[in-house]
Amino acid sequence: NHILDLFDIRQKTLRYIIMDDLILFIVNTTYEAEVLELVEKLYDNLVNDIPQTKIKLAYSNPIAQAHEIPKAFAILSKTVTNANRQQIDLAIYNENHVRLINLLKSLNYEELHSFSTSIIGRLLEYEKKTNLPLINTIYKYIQCRFSIKKTADELFIHPNSLKYRLSVVEKLGYRINNIRSHFFDFYLALYVQINLLEDISDT
Fold first, then answer.
1. From the CB of residue 71, how many other CB atoms can be counted at a distance below 10 Å?
2. 39-48 long-range contacts, Cβ below 8 Å, gap at least 24?
3. E strands, the chain, where?
4. Bridge partner list, 93
5. 136 near 162, Cβ under 8 Å?
6. Helix, strand or coil, per DSSP, at residue 24
7. Taking the model in full, what pTM does it have?
8. Model pLDDT for residues 19-37, shown as the tens digit of each residue
């Protein structure tokens, strides 16, 4: 019902297939809207309806031909599997995220480290000195859409502890309220550090 309402479509234009623990929805529509915005609303509705369930949403780019559906589903379902193994820590993602992640994994790790350090270097230095997990904290804070309560719940800490960590981040020169203005490079630097570089340092 959430999908029907958000995409303003009829029942007959929606198909779904259950495969193991994945559900593939095929929405046949010419509705010209911001897909990400609709997917985010769908995610919020599902989380509110079934808060006890861990939900990840993956959506494809617009598909013109039916024969393209299996390939898109294969790409996204593989990513869901990897995400559940914590290789990709996102709740909502699409084909472009998958391609970017695969591209990042093929790059030179020294270059990735240089890129990450140039943006979040002060966070890395402070974390190394104090063992205060600022990187994961701000990463989770962005993922939780800047919600204090949800982030604290995800990190299993008190909201006041989260507020303290965020205040430290602010003091280090990172204006959290303005993160959206340089969201992509900041979030990408955090992602590279957590999901790519830490994997290397642990091996």
1. 12
2. 39/92, 40/92, 41/6, 42/2, 42/3, 42/6, 43/91, 43/92, 45/2, 45/6, 46/2
3. 14-19, 22-27, 57-59, 92-94
4. 58
5. no
6. strand
7. 0.55
8. 767 777 777 666 555 676 7
CA nearest to 192, candidates 114, 81, 91, 99: 114
Per-residue pLDDT reduced to its tens digit, 151-181: 999 999 999 999 999 999 999 988 876 555 5
Question: At a CB cut-off of 8 Å and minimum separation 6, what does 52 contact?
Answer: none
Q: What does the alpha-carbon distance between residue 72 and residue 94 come to, in Å, rounded to a whole number?
A: 10
From the number of C-beta atoms within 10 Å of its C-beta (0-12, 13-18, 19+), residue 80 rates as: middle
Residue spans of beta strands (DSSP E) within 39-100: 57-59, 92-94
Which residues lie below 8 Å from residue 76, measured CB to CB, with a gap of 6+?
58, 59, 60, 94, 95, 98
- The Cα–Cα gap between 159 and 137 comes to 12
Q: Which of 20, 27, 22 has the alpha carbon at shortest distance from 2? A: 27
Instruction: Provide the β-strand partners of residue 115.
Output: none
Tokens of 78: 């593989």
CB atoms within 10 A of CB 149: 10
Single-letter residue type at 130? T
Start-to-end CA span in the chain (Å): 46
